[in-house]
Structures are given as C-alpha cells and as structure tokens.
Design brief:
Elements lengths: L1 H20 L7 E17 L1 H8 L3 E11 L4 E15 L3 E17 L10 E22 L12 E4 L3 E22 L2 E16 L10 E2 L3 E2 L6 E25 H7 L1
Antiparallel strand pairs: 1-2, 1-11, 2-3, 3-4, 4-5, 5-6, 5-7, 7-8, 8-11, 9-10
C-alpha cells in the first residue's frame, strides 16, 4: 500500500513540474470566425451628369462597377460615353465617342468588423473609339491689315473624321465610403499614359480630345482624369475569415 501511494505521489509531482514549466498566458485568446460579403458593386459617376447640366458644350455618362475577388483585391471597370465641343483660336471641333476601362483595385484600408470601406490604388487598361468633327475654321494670316479684328474665314461646313481609336493605361488612386447599408460614395483621380492614338488613316485633323482620357497635349502622352461615384453593393455570397482576439475584448463586445 505504501508503495502504491508513493508511485501516485511521484506521478503527481511529475505532472505538476510539467505544468509549471509551461508559461501562463495572462491574456488568453480565442479564434473568432466571421463572414465577409462578396459580390458586385455598380453605380454611376455623378460628375458627368452635373457637368452636362452646367456646360452646353459637354455631354457625358459613365457606369462604374467592381467585383470582389479576395479580401483586398477587386476587379474594376468603367464604361462611358462623352461628347465635347471646344473652341480654339482658329477652329471649333466636336469629339464624340465611348470608352471602356478594365483593371484591378487593391484596398489598403484595414476595416473594422462589418465595414467595407476602401482606400485603394490600382490600374486600368483603357480603350476609346470616337470621331472628331471640324465644325468651322479660319485661316491664319500674319498680314492683318485689311482684317485687324479677326482672321479670314475658311469654312463653316462641318466635316467629320471618323474611325479614330486610342489605347492608354491608367494609375488609379481613390476611396469608397459606405454611407448607408450597401450604398457607397466614391472618388478617384487617374493618371493616364497614352499608348496608341490612331487617326484612322486620315491625318488632316489630329486627335485633340479623347473620350475617357481628356485633352491630348502636344509633346506629352500624359493625361489626368477623375470621377465621383455613387454605387450599390449587391452581396452574392459570404466567406469566413478567422481572427484571434483576446477573451477580454470578446467580453466587451458582448
């Protein structure tokens, strides 16, 4: 009997020694699993209808959309149409066409549980198909003795130059904030670099303005754009995300 109690005592002493050698976690953690929504977010750019209402020489409309691929990565696209009339010193022209931009956005903002806001950066590959119409023009004449106030009139008969195309890449920096449930307000600035600018085989009138890219500057392939969007998020499914939280934090949330 004494030998039996001695064996139990030695076993308990060994277990106690092993337990004491393991550090005690004063702030134990628990694994929390919560679901994040994945789906399509679609809307319109608000700036183009507003400018269209205020400026008689502009008409524009743009649809924006993105689809969540991972926790931070989105595939994004913009589809739009623009009609712009400009008056230069010697001529007046109108550019009309449409454009498509497709690319990716990476969300760099760490959301709290349940939030879906974003501060993102990304890129787009963009394509535009358009035409340009020379509405009227005047001849440049350095000798203006007989017509000091203006240049001699050239033509007021409009001539259209169609079949124009352009391709460019964009760097995108923007943000999207959830105002209400699934309703987002967004803003972005875009720096574009013109890769291809085709005149459709007719070089009598150059491409001076490209839908989706804006003004074409002599000696530079860079352009700047922006948008202000409102969109609706349509959840399609959810994915689980695991995270570790201290038990004290979990108790405060309950």
């Amino acid at each position: 009997m004494l030998r039996y109690f001695t064996s139990i005592f030695i076993l308990l002493s060994a277990i106690s020694s092993i337990a004491q050698s393991k550090p005690i976690d004063t702030q134990p953690k628990d694994t929390v699993v919560y679901k994040q929504s994945y789906g399509i977010r679609a809307g319109i750019d608000l700036s183009r209808p507003i400018i269209s209402a205020l400026d008689d020489n502009y008409r524009g409309f743009e649809i924006v959309a993105d689809y969540r691929l991972t926790q931070k990565l989105y595939i994004a696209a913009e589809l739009g149409t623009e009609d712009k009339t400009k008056q230069e010193d010697l001529y007046n022209f109108t550019t009309s066409g449409s454009y498509l931009k497709v690319g990716l956005d990476n969300n760099t903002y760490a959301n709290w549980y349940g939030e879906q806001n974003s501060i993102h950066m990304g890129g787009r590959l963009a394509f535009s198909s358009f035409s340009q119409t020379l509405n009227n023009y005047q001849y440049y004449d350095s000798n203006r003795y007989w017509n000091a106030d203006s240049f001699a009139e050239g033509s007021s008969v409009a001539e259209e130059f169609s079949g124009r195309t352009a391709v460019w890449v964009e760097a995108v920096f923007g943000t999207k904030v959830e105002l209400f449930a699934n309703i987002f307000m967004g803003a972005s600035i875009r720096l574009g670099f013109l890769v291809s600018n085709s005149d459709g085989g007719d070089d009598r009138f150059p491409n001076l303005w490209i839908p989706g890219f804006n003004k074409v500057t002599d000696g530079s392939n860079f352009g700047v754009g922006y948008n202000y969007s409102i969109s609706y998020f349509l959840p399609l499914y959810k994915k689980n995300k695991k995270t570790e939280k201290k038990i004290e934090e979990l108790e405060k949330e309950q």
